[in-house]
Design a protein that fits this description.
This protein is of the alpha/beta class. The chain is built from eleven helices and 15 strands.
């Protein structure tokens, strides 16, 4: 089977334990995470060969990170070495009415200094069927945006399917360019586009009528987003499928979760999961993307099943601590089949 390639930043994650606030915590739990790496780990768990491409310095923290990726069978042979540091993000997990907080310490990380030509994309894509990137990567620096565009163009030339998660992060766009200036040229080369309730609006000004993501109270109507999908396809005619994740936030520990997929003039809708005791929602969108890529590769003629797999996989992610979705295909299929009882498996 040909591999899936992902490209982006992976960071050291330092999280307060047991819902503690930064100001009261005396220790931090250390793991690694980042959108594109999270997708690669999901796919490796599902048996899909993967290759994660990034830039990391020559130091022990970077070596620790690479070792962690290899533990999950993610390919690391095309990671470029250089630069000064591994980016860090600090996480304070919220509870009930108190929202989670993320503080980034990723300025001047190794990948922020990447430039076109540092990665031999023709060699990377030699045995690849799919390339995935997110809107976080071009937000880091002009060099990262240029390297991402370089990769997309090579993938297009070689017939490799390209997917993106728009993943708008307003706090990252700090190098003098707006997402609306940079993203269109990159998204134009994509076959599959994923976003959440707000991404298309924040980046492209495309939104459903009368929708306020902050006031969902757990109720999100998938049909409202059909117009978003059609507008995205009109703007980016290469796109074959547009997918929206639908999160209804009741409180920090209780969300509803689902999604819709638009392809061939038809809107597919998933069932809605009621996530009542969330362990860790960070990486939820990435786990959806990993499940979606697996589903589209495994069930190429069944968009509904691919969507169902993605939503079930990401529902399970909310029960797993850390950025990575450490679940298996049988576990996802069990939930798809309606068994969410959580009974002990003997």
């Amino acid at each position: 089977m040909k591999k899936v390639v992902t490209f982006g930043e992976i960071m050291l994650r330092l999280a307060t334990p047991d819902y503690q606030r930064f100001i009261q915590s005396t220790n931090l739990n250390a793991t690694f995470g980042g959108g594109e790496a999270n997708v690669a780990v999901s796919l490796s768990n599902y048996g899909i060969p993967t290759d994660f491409v990034t830039r990391l310095p020559e130091n022990d923290i970077a070596n620790w990170c690479i070792s962690d990726l290899r533990k999950y069978n993610v390919g690391t042979s095309n990671i470029v070495r250089g630069g000064d540091r591994v980016g860090i993000y600090f996480l304070e997990t919220g509870a009930i009415a108190r929202a989670s907080k993320v503080v980034y310490d990723r300025a001047n990380s190794a990948i922020a200094d990447i430039k076109p030509g540092m990665v031999n994309w023709n060699a990377v894509f030699k045995d690849a069927q799919w390339f995935h990137w997110t809107g976080i990567t071009p937000a880091l620096s002009q060099g990262a945006a240029d390297a991402c565009l370089e990769a997309i163009k090579v993938a297009n030339e070689l017939g490799v399917t390209v997917s993106t998660d728009l993943n708008y992060r307003k706090n990252l766009w700090k190098y003098g360019k707006k997402a609306s200036e940079v993203m269109p040229a990159l998204v134009a080369g994509c076959d599959i586009i994923l976003g959440n309730e707000e991404d298309a609006e924040k980046v492209f000004g495309i939104k459903p009528a009368n929708f306020d993501a902050a006031g969902t109270a757990g109720e999100v109507n998938a049909a409202e987003f059909e117009s978003v999908c059609t507008q995205m396809m009109q703007k980016f005619p290469r796109a074959k499928k547009v997918i929206i994740t639908l999160r209804g936030s009741i409180n920090a520990n209780h969300n509803t979760w689902g999604g819709c997929l638009y392809a061939g003039g038809k809107l597919y809708q998933s069932k809605r999961y009621d996530l009542t005791h969330i362990v860790d929602r960070v990486g939820g969108g990435d786990s959806f993307m990993g499940g979606l890529i697996y589903g589209l590769i495994t069930y190429p003629q069944d968009d509904q099943r691919a969507l169902n797999f993605a939503v079930a996989a990401s529902a399970l992610k909310h029960t797993v601590y850390g950025d990575f979705n450490l679940v298996t295909v049988p576990e996802v299929e069990q939930l798809m089949g309606g068994d969410g009882s959580g009974r002990v498996s003997r």
